[in-house]
Amino acid sequence: MRLLLVLINEPIPGEVLPKLAADIGETKASDYYKALIEVMLRQLQGLEKCRIRFCYSPDDASDAAKFWLLPKMDARSSTTEDLYLAPSSASAEQSPQEVDFRPQGHGDLGQRIQRAFSDAFAEGYQEIALLDPTCIECGARWINATFARFHSKNSRDTVIGPTDKGRYYILALKSEAPELFEDIQWHSEALLSSTEAKAKRAGRNVELLPLLAETTTLEDWQRLLTSPLGAALKKALGEPLEDISL
């Protein structure tokens, strides 16, 4: 059983993308965050045998998260309580995409991430990945390929996707690894190196994926608008590209 964890914040102005907000204002940064997440949802179409779990913050944002995300995924309720089903791709032959929601809970970021992994392993998931939603270039193909690394001849048990800012856009595990989330500076450029070093000291077999870019600053956003995903971001914002003020 596979699970993709996506930590999201309710897009309240002042609570998301602080570096971008410093340049364009908190309200506009909130709109850009919503656009990033909505494009990410499209990028996740085509996941193979993998449930998506949105871990939301604050903990009272359950209804807000569902009201925002489920319509964007064209998802509907299932016969299982708190489980939703969305089209997995353009092909009607594929099984629907399973989606559920959980609060992130209390504690710092490391504690919240560790809890999300621990709870999922306790539920019986055997392969779990954490995705950074600001790295929207990491779509379903990347994630499927990440899980495939667990079944290579090298028997990987930890797969990490590095970002251009020294952090990671994906962390995939085959077993619990609480040591990876302790005493970590989450927003520093040493996150990747610290995590990789901790994993190797714990005897884990680590593989690094190709580097991808985060979107946290105005410069990052401008780069994205000129990328193949620029048109999708423009559509998510509901504005023509030439009218987007940078």
Strand order of the largest sheet: 3-4-5-2-1-6-8-7-9
Radius of gyration equals 17 Å
Write down the secondary-structure element order.
EHHEHEEEHEHEEHEHH
CATH fold-level assignment: Spore Coat Polysaccharide Biosynthesis Protein SpsA, Chain A
Count of structural domains: 1
Supply the helix-strand structural class: alpha/beta
What percent strand?
15-25%
E-strand count? 9
In the predicted model, the low-confidence regions spanning at least 5 consecutive residues are 241-246
CATH architecture: Alpha-Beta Complex
Largest sheet: 9 strands, mixed
| Annotated CATH homologous superfamily | Spore Coat Polysaccharide Biosynthesis Protein SpsA, Chain A
Helix fraction?
25-40%
What spatial form do the alpha-carbon principal axes imply? Answer: globular
